[in-house]
Amino acid sequence: MNGGKKIVVMVVDDHPLMRVGIAAIINARKDMSVVAQAGTGEEALALYRRHKPDITLMDLRLPGAMR
Question: How many Cα neighbours within 13 Å face the side chain of 64?
């Protein structure tokens, strides 16, 4: 599929329990790994620049996010 390389994911949601739950599901997979979690749009931008994930799973109604 991807040559044995894990798909790197960042989870962004203002609800900590939602982030933790989604991260647990993703990390349970052998081919995926959560490298960062953010609770705000500003935090998400900083973490995205640092980790450069393959996928960003983000709440569309995140408070404070630019529209």
Answer: 11
Across 4-37, b (16+ Cβ under 10 Å) vs e yields eeeebbbbbbbeeeebeebbeebeeeeeeebbbb
Q: Per the domain annotation, does 66 fall within a domain?
A: no
pLDDT level of residue 63 (50, 70, 90 thresholds) = confident
Q: How many domains does the chain contain in total?
A: 1
pTM of the model: 0.87
- Specify the CATH number for the domain of residue 23: 3.40.50.2300
User: Is 20 within the bounds of a domain?
Assistant: yes
